Amino acid sequence: MKEKAKEIAERLLSSSKVHVVSHIDADGIASASIAYSALSRAGVDVSVQFVKQLEERILNSVKEAGHDMIWFTDLGSGQLRNLAGVRCVITDHHEPQGEATGPLDRGNILSYSNHGIMELNPHRYGIDGSKEISGAGVTYLVAREMGDNIDLSHLAIVGAVGDMQASADGRLVGSNREILAEGEEAGFVNTNIDAQLYGIESRPLSKVIEYASDPLIPGLSGDQTGSVDFLDDLGIPLKKDGGWRRWYQLEHPEKQKIISALADRILDAGYPASYASSLVGEVYTFPNEEPGTMLHEAKEFSTLLNSCGRYQKGKIGMAVCTGDRGEKLKEAYRLLKGHQKVLVDCMKIVESEGIEEKDFLQYFSGGHKIPETVLGTVAGMILGSGKADRSMPILGFAYTEDGEGMKVSSRATKTLVDSGLDLSEVMSKCSKELGGEGGGHAIAAGAFIPDDKKERFLQLAEDMIKSQLS
Length: 470
Ligand SMILES: [Mn+2]
Hints:
The protein contains 18 helices and 15 strands.
């Protein structure tokens, strides 16, 4: 990959102006920020545009804008055919569609480079882009060939963590590890073995326990008083000098005490030991950021970027990534706060409307009240909160914003997936039968269906889930 990265870097450096098109999620925002920094440091004029996906309409408008050179980051490999004739480079980690442009197929490199396209994608080199490197990571490989850009390595880590590439094993693997080692050696990233809980920098201690969802803590997740009592019983002071203590401020023995008590709870509730051991894993922090802020730790940093992306404010996220610690950072925090309020309101809506149960699935109906953009997150939170039955998957329904159909989001537990459940298949096949479309992952998937087909969809999904689990 290094050789290809070098070729791409040279091509970018010989351009006078580059237009960056990136995906609008945490990884995409980190990718664009790396590309932006590397280009502007090298004196290349740069403009940036964020998109949800590279659909035909958007692709046509990008083409028509007549840019001399375009750099697609965290997307593009799925659109090679439609990019014929466009002078561009691509740094992407999604499964490529169409013929190879890498060493797997020499002939096609020539045909595509004749068409003006240069692509760096790990899948062309036998590297699994879904686990081993993110869009930001691939973009970083090019940036490091463009100049002294090792300080951008922390953004490659934020992108990988944002794409959940550290969650399966509790640590980054593959090419991500090489980037991590480089960043660590240069002093831009630290790796610690610590709790895999969310909010260890910025949230009060009891909130970290209360909101724990991966892993879920039986009897504590979602229970405010229970979480406070739990820490009290262990003799852990919640406050110090009048302020709420945070996880990162705890003494090592305190952390150990809490983690082993949490593990006991998980084991006592009958979950496997592997579930309890997922409480601990690698945590990535950034020494150049202020401790106790969301920017100091990769998971929280990526969450902040995602909340910018969700509200179409990719540029706010990029300003934060490229160093703004004033107005833009404040705006990013405001977006996150607003998002959290939306989620709390949606949880209340589900609680008051209720969850309906069938034999093999449960579902809730958000109608026009739950925005389709947060439907999946809400479904996941309901399943994680202990307010739903964890022995079956949950589906959420809501009308789409354009009023032209219905969005379905589904979430399951790892245990269900291990037993054969595949929500991606459920969402894609059942929606297709009703004239819609869908897909995703075994554990989390979504679909769009005509708005009068909800009952029929539920029936089809119920049948398929039943046969998957039997
Ligand atoms: Mn990505």
